[in-house]
Design a protein that fits this description.
Blueprint lengths: L4 H4 L6 H15 L15 H12 L3 H11 L7 H13 L4 H7 L14
Helix pairs in contact: 3-4
Amino acid sequence: MALDSQTMHEPPPTENSLFSLRKVIKDEFQKLPNFPTQAIELAPPELADEVLDLYYSGHAKIAQHFYDSCWPKNRPGKNDFWSFMMNQAKQRQFWPEIEKMNHLKSRNHNNTKYL
């Protein structure tokens, strides 16, 4: 089975849709534990869902900016969660094709903060 990157690539989301989702995610951050014990607890799942959806539709740069704009300034773990999320993503079958679709060089996201 192969990935059809042309079918996967979608138009970028509107700023209005990102604005609405950003508000939801920021509200969800308020519900998280102050002292998470696992990387998965560092951010709401909606943030990872949207970032990965953006990657899988060919919008890695928008994904990074969205991630940055959602993360509360005073909340630690931003780089840790990014690494956790990218490590999970790169284990997927089609990750090399997703990197190509986003014009990214294959890299070890373990040691990469951002794009």
